Amino acid sequence: MKNKKFLVGLALVGGVAVGFSADVPTPDQVKQLKEMGILPSDVIVDEGNDYFHNLKGPNGKTCASCHGQDGAKLVGAYAKMPRYYKDIGKVADIDIRIKACMTKYMGFPNDKKFKKKFTKKYRVPLAGYVATLSNGMKINVTLDDPQEKELYEFGKKLWYQRVGGRDLSCAICHEIYAGYRIRLQKLGAPVRDKLYAHWPAYRFSKDKLWTMEDRIRGCYKSYFLYLGKKWHKKKDWVKKPPYYMKEIVALELFMKKAANGATIEVPGLLR
Amino acid sequence: MKKIAFASLILGVGAIVACQAPASKAEQKAAKPAKKMSKEEKFRAALAKQDKYQKACSNEKQLVPEGIPLEQFKKDMLATIKYPKGGVVGDWKKGEKLFGDPKKGGKGKGNCYACHCGDPSIIACGNIGPSLRGYGKRGIDPKTTYQRIYNPWSIQPCSAMFRFGVHGILSPEQIAHVTAFLHDSNSPINK
What we know:
Low-confidence stretches of chain A: 1-22
Number of helices of chain A: 11
Number of helices of chain B: 9
Radius of gyration of chain A: 19 Å
Order of helices and strands of chain A: HHHHHEEHHHHEEEEHHE
Strand content of chain A: 5-15%
CATH topology of the domain at 69-191 in chain B: Cytochrome Bc1 Complex, Chain D, domain 2
CATH class of the domain at 69-191 in chain B: Mainly Alpha
Helix content of chain B: 40-55%
Mean pLDDT of chain B: 87
CATH topology of the domain at 146-270 in chain A: Cytochrome Bc1 Complex, Chain D, domain 2
Distance between the termini of chain A: 26 Å
Largest interface: A-B, 58 and 62 residues
Distance between the termini of chain B: 41 Å
Structural class of chain A: mainly alpha
Helix content of chain A: 40-55%
Largest sheet of chain A: 3 strands, mixed
Oligomer: heterodimer
Largest sheet of chain B: none
CATH superfamily of the domain at 69-191 in chain B: Cytochrome c-like domain
Mean pLDDT of chain A: 89
Low-confidence stretches of chain B: 11-29
Strand order of the largest sheet of chain A: 6-5-7
CATH class of the domain at 146-270 in chain A: Mainly Alpha
Shape of chain A: globular
Number of strands of chain A: 7
Strand content of chain B: under 5%
């Protein structure tokens, strides 16, 4: 019976998500869904909560050992990300920051095997959980460090860079033609409408919680990037950029800076 | 209540399915890199492959080239166009499948319905590009249509439409088929 309820609930949510096109549901709608107990993203965030308090690294520490019970010391941290971190010597987004914490302070090995496990298993739940700690706060990305400034400019360049087999840029779809439709999918304007406030977001079409890293990789997939002379040779295709690349962080920084002042409400709820 | 929920599920799933781009299927099959390049290097190399004309369009206006005079831009783009042996008008039925096969819900190699409406029976069509309903009745020269698909930037520099022929997304013969689909009086576009 419980299952059935859940399914009916999901169906309702599906209807809502489609009925309101790609627009983010209003806070009232999200509240209603929350009251009905049918936000699948909550399950993932709970998983993150569990990892945060109970996942011990090889040296016996959990996230909570440093950041406090219920992430007390991380409240508001997500509002300032991505930013420069002295301990890792570079600008990091939430995904990279968590990975660095786990390898640097919890004793997980900084190798390919752990990177894969982190990416597939721990990254999204933990990022989702840490992001929710800043709910209700305003995004406040400052470009105080020269590395941040440089990366922001790089992100801006990438945003407008037309490239690949489809001559696309981020801006073509998400700025110039924002509000128009690709098939039935309305294009959002993350910069103009400060959509970053709703990320990480749960996407019904993928049945997954996505951080902005996942989203940007998905976008690049549709660029039809290729090496060689023509796109049609499959061996020359370049798919998504790998996780944690500088390019991804640069775009995140550009978009999140644009969302300054917007109130964080995560996990968002999307088509 | 349950009925309503069920209906919305069907509606939701239907729309979600319709929104998937056909590109993803092809992308999953990508082969191994030619040389021993890391994924990072491959991605950066592909970004660096930006040509002179893409670069000219990479400004904040996006749809207006900078640094290359408009007429020069169009002339250069026109020079990239190769024509098929059989002429610019091919087989409209083959063109229909490339444009977006009605049997596959409007999906096809060209993925034209992503941005354009055409066959009135395909409802899931985008509105980034103009509607192409009745295109064949507008008195446009098929050669111009062919050029517009092969290299849209030869007519409208920095347009959002992909340069299908330049990048080899469609071959000259395939573009001729799509041209036929747009112009043929029997094509559902013109019914």
